[in-house]
Amino acid sequence: MKNQARDLKNAADNFNPEHKEGPVARTIEEYTAKLPSDLFLWAALGSMAISATLKIMKKDDEALFVGQWPAPFLLLGLYNKIVKVKGHEGEKTSGSRSGSY
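The structure assignment produced for this chain is given below.
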């Protein structure tokens, strides 16, 4: 049992020793880095306003559904900011620090 766990750990450690991103993550980072960071903040605030409006209109199920959107928007904004600051794979690219964040 211990040998299997050790073998599994060694296989996991050696699977991606350089910690490189896959092609899907790299493509997503290329596109999301082009979006302004405040877009995600406005999307979160907008969904909160829509949720409150739906709640006032007594559409509780819809309000709850839309009210769950701000957290994912803010997490996507955080991811976007990290990609812009750190660049792809932690490397500084020519466009990673230009413009406003």
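Interim note for the steering committee: The helical segments are 2-15, 23-32, 38-56, 60-67, 70-86. Confidence is low (pLDDT under 50) at residues 92-101.
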